[in-house]
Predict the 3D structure of the following.
Amino acid sequence: MTRARAPAPVGFAMDSRLAGDTHPLASLPLCELRLMDDANYPWLVLVPRVAEARELIDLGPEQRRLLVEEIDLASRLLREVFRPHKLNVAALGNLVPQLHVHAIARFEDDPAWPAPVWGRVAARPYTPEALVERVARLRAALPE
């Protein structure tokens, strides 16, 4: 899959909470791939650059196909880099209605296991050094 970024459509803006809670990782053909600022878990967020998209059904057929491919890419990236016990993939959006998809690497010894990550333990922001290391490690494993 090419990592060339398509121009953002007119009217697209990333929700300020998503922007504030994540760090840029890569621009994929449809989505911004971002790292959640929670060092408790390897956690990626995909945000389709589609104006006003709140639900999967707001995407056109080609956009849905691309989103599935990009979720696959994010999931495989987490599996390759971190070797998790399980991958959690979800599109919730109760607090942030803009369409976004979470891909989270889970381990039997992570702070929330086996429960969902939401609301279990406080987020642990990355230190500047850990953030640089994590982003570099993930970017190095992305396909060209």
